[in-house]
Structure formats: C-alpha cells, structure tokens
Design a protein that fits this description.
Strand order of the largest sheet: 2-3-4-1-5-8-7-6
Strand content: 35-45%
Number of strands: 8
Structural class: alpha+beta
Shape: globular
Largest sheet: 8 strands, mixed
CATH class: Alpha Beta
Bound molecules: zinc ion
C-alpha cells in the first residue's frame, strides 16, 4: 500500500543558497550531507510527515549536473512510501507501467527503492521507497 509522500527532491546549483527560502519560512534545515556514491550533496527540510530534499551535484559527471544542464533548477523527483515495495513494483509492471528499476535496490539508511520512468507520471521522475521498519512480517 502506498502510504504517503516520503519526500520531494529539488535539483539546485547551490544548496546553501537554496535553503534560504525554507529558513525564511521558519523551517529547520538539516546539515548538508555528502553522498559520494551518487556524487551529490543533500539537505533535508522536514515538513509535517514529509520532507523536501535539496540535491546539488558534487561534480560535473553527477547525474544531477546533467539534469541541471538540460532542465535547469527545479523539481527532480517525488518519492512515495510503500510498505511492500516488491508488491508495488510487481503490481505496476503487471499493468504495463514503465520502470527504471525493474526490481527494488538498496537506498540510503537501509531503505529499499525503485524508480518509475518519468513517462509513467506526466514527466515526473517518481521514486518508491520502503523503510526497514515498514516491512510487514508475514
Ligand atoms: Zn529521493
């Protein structure tokens, strides 16, 4: 079952500059983290049950660099939380939904993730995530 919007990720050129707006809103911004695996720096802004993730490329060969060059700053992807990612991915494929990841892979913080092709959702790259504590035992 899809439970909520886990996060909304925005591609930015300068993460410190991009946090200004959220600080002006009075929101707390996490410390900036480097994710060398994906060649990005990220900052999280918790808002209610979800959060905004700002993503800045660490190098020219980062996938985010390519995105910024092509489309400029803006919405990069949305992420929906599911409690059974295997089932969700299988169910989507049965209905002919185009997936980037045909089976879930390991994400950060022991999550399991899978990306749906943007063509399946009006041009919006969509991530599915299952958190380790969501896993139902059966
Ligand atoms: Zn994400």
């Amino acid at each position: 079952m899809v439970k909520k919007v886990d996060h909304i990720a925005i591609a930015v050129k300068d993460i410190e500059q991009a946090t200004t707006f959220y600080k002006q809103l009075g929101l707390d911004v996490s410390a900036v983290e480097e994710v060398p695996d994906q060649k990005v720096r990220v900052a999280f802004i918790p808002i209610g049950e979800t959060h905004i993730e700002l993503v800045e490329p660490m190098s020219k060969d980062s996938p985010i660099s390519a995105f910024l060059e092509k489309r400029g700053e803006g919405l990069h992807h949305i992420c929906l939380e599911t409690d059974q990612i295997d089932h969700t991915v299988e169910h989507l494929q049965e209905q002919g939904v185009r997936m980037i990841d045909k089976s879930p892979r390991t994400g950060s913080r022991q999550t399991r993730i899978a990306f749906v092709h943007p063509k399946a959702n009006a041009g919006v790259l969509t991530e599915l995530v299952e958190h380790p504590d969501d896993k139902q035992s059966h």
